[in-house]
Amino acid sequence: MSHKNIITRRDLLKLSAGTTGAIALGGMMPSIFTPEAMAQTSAQSAVLVCFLPGGCNALFGSADSFSGAGTFGVTAANMLNLGNGLVVDSSFNTLGAFAKANMASVGVAHGIAAHGSAKAAQFTLNNNNPVMTLAAAMGGSGSIKAANVGAEIAPGPQTAVNGTSLQQISDMKSTIDAMGGGAPDPTMPKRELAAKGISAAEIMSTSRLAGNPESLATVANGYKAAFDTLAKPAQPFNAQELMTAYGLTGTAVGDMKSKFAAAELMIRSGTNVVTAVAGGGLAWDTHGDTSGARARQKFVAEIMPGLKIFTDRMVTANSNVTVIIFGDFARSLPGSDHASVTVATVIGPNVKLGTTGKVDAAVGLPGGTPTVNGMWGLVATLAKAPTSAIQAFGGNPHTALSKV
Amino acid sequence: MKKIYGISLVLAVGLVACGKAPRHHAGAISAATTVSEDAKGTEAKDGMEPKASTMLTCSLTDGKAYKGFGNINLVAGRITEVPKEGDRFRVKPYAALSGEFTRVMGAVPPSLTANAATFAVAPERWYVEPQASAIVLFTNFRVSYEAALTLAGSDAKFAEAPSETNATANCTSFARQAWNRLPTTEEVAACKKVALVDTAAETDIKARWAYTLASVLTATGFVAY
Questions:
Q1: Is A255 on the interface with B (CB under 8 A)?
Q2: What is the pTM of this model?
Q3: How many CB pairs under 8 A join A and B?
Q4: Is residue A237 predicted with pLDDT exceeding 90?
Q5: pLDDT tens figures, A349-359
Q6: Chain-centroid distance, C-alpha B186
Q7: How far is CA A262 from CA A39, A85, A174, A255, A365, in A?
Q8: d(CA A247, CA A209)
């Protein structure tokens, strides 16, 4: 692409920015945007992908599979029967009524019991990262269509799909500043001029970017997304309301609670798909956890507090935000090692209560259970992505779990 | 005697050149290194982006093998050859930016420290490949702008409003300092456009220069090495 083409495209973007409304969910959400900004918003679909690196025990999404033998410490006391065949771990009981009524377990028969391969398989479809594929297909006017909150990056290829790249969000304050929602600051550059300056920086980088297409890919993608973000009208933002809601004292994105808060921030700013990785390395590789106690303790301490706040605020009857939670694979018996299937949990207004992820006593799924494509096909369906995008994943085989 | 002298000279040239080249790659160096004439000392030749095809490559075939638990060869996956082609540059980590801003601007801008979390600093004893993003690049621009405002207020070179003459001179010299090489004509033109066109409506002369210098500091010549 020549410089001239880049400038022409961006000049067009700049021209159109004045007529493009700030994007976020509609007026049904708590008022973190000022009324002026909210008046410009319209209903928007979004997906939060919460990934547990190392594995996610099926006791969370298919508790009754283990109750007979009492494996993984499942008893009648720690099961939660949500109806329509869905029995989950009681960790989920702290969620609001709407979330619990719109939850399902999704079976994924990927057949892989190795960490690296399972991660890659679940985040690689047709050589692309399904997160970016879905985010690109969902369209919308967000300047950052796919975002990863926190330092740990979701697995899969990082190559941009149709111009959509995965933008890392490590601090909410600087993100708000980039969106023009920060407090007045005389040392802050004007947005329009900063956009032009960054465009110039990209042109000055042409040669080096061309010579380092992989190692500097995040820079190339970042220039585009930065320009697009700055070309949008400023989005006034009440950061304090968000901090208070999530009980945060700082804006750095570190623990899972702050990742859920950052996910909300990005979705409200127009991001289609957000990924949040729950810890570094293989944080959820719970070998030897035969009682399931360690997995439960981690889930309750690390996932549930932020998930509850996020779903209470973002997953409502009037919104279209879907959350999916899964890991490399489920844990096998008897030693909580590596199973070769995944049981994902989905929560969202378009989710029909139920399960396709009920494992047997050996942590296997019934024959005919769809593989990875099916999970992404379901997510695309729940997000009301264009039909072409759903078909790109091979369609949605989990029709029993979708209201749409 | 002449023969011995000649062999020694060849070996010395090879070792010195090989030692200079892999600025972006640490590792053992084999004596079998070959050096192209074009590549000698041209890594940062003024006015030229180093060409990947002329970069030196060093074979890393000589290394000590270490055994770990279970008699596993800990260096089994070691890369033994430096890729000859591109993809050698990396995003500068946050830890490097303080020194780099001090080198170019004379001080660490307060907003760099205040926005440390934006750059996703790896926990102690961990390494995370630095990633750029829209927010990182915007924050880098913002930090650079703050530093450039200070510089423009104290350096007489930036006292006059940008003109064709002083924009050419200032863009060239500042990019030379920031990037450790002379900029190309196209790069100077992009810099001048910020000073002369993009910021033309800005009434604060210091701010016009600050936007111009910040664009140079947000280019890969500064944010990557």
A1: no
A2: 0.82
A3: 186
A4: no
A5: 999 999 999 99
A6: 19
A7: 22, 33, 11, 11, 34
A8: 41
